[in-house]
Amino acid sequence: MVVELKGQPPAYSVNASTLFLGLMDGGSNARILLDLAAANEIELHAEPSDWNGLLWLISTALKETGGAYSGEDYASLRNNLPVTFH
Fold first, then answer.
1. What pLDDT does 5 receive?
2. Closest Cα to residue 86, out of 52, 45, 38, 55?
3. Contact, 21 vs 10, CB < 8 A?
4. What is the pLDDT of residues 5-43, one digit of tens each?
5. 3-state DSSP call for residue 44?
């Protein structure tokens, strides 16, 4: 969904899988969305449940490789993602 208001960048809704793909695959369209949002060219919005889904996807991927993130790592990720969760 795209919402355009005069004087503001277009806003797009994203889900957990799009965010995960954008974080993990630097050549994907999802990564382009994250990069555009970081440059304030667009706005990305997601539901709180998408944050929970992203956490699950990341922790599952890390478990398969034997890695782990701390709570501080996840908090930093959420604060630095160019996505508004609401």
1. 62
2. 45
3. no
4. 677 899 999 999 999 999 999 999 999 999 999 999 999
5. strand
Residue 28's alpha-carbon distances to 55, 62, 64, 71, 77, in angstroms, are 20, 20, 22, 27, 19
Mean pLDDT computed over 32-57: 97
Question: Which of the pair, 47 or 65, is modelled with greater confidence?
Answer: 47
If DSSP codes are grouped into helix, strand and coil, which group holds residue 10?
Answer: coil
* Separation between Cα atoms, residue 28 and residue 19, nearest integer Å: 11
Q: How many domains does the structure of the chain reveal?
A: 1
How far is the C-alpha of 29 from the C-alpha of 65, rounded, in Å? 25
How many C-beta atoms surround the C-beta of residue 19 within 10 A?
24
Note the helical H segments in the chain. 16-24, 29-38, 48-65, 71-80
Q: What is the CA radius of gyration of the chain?
A: 13
**Structural domain span for residue 51:** 2-85
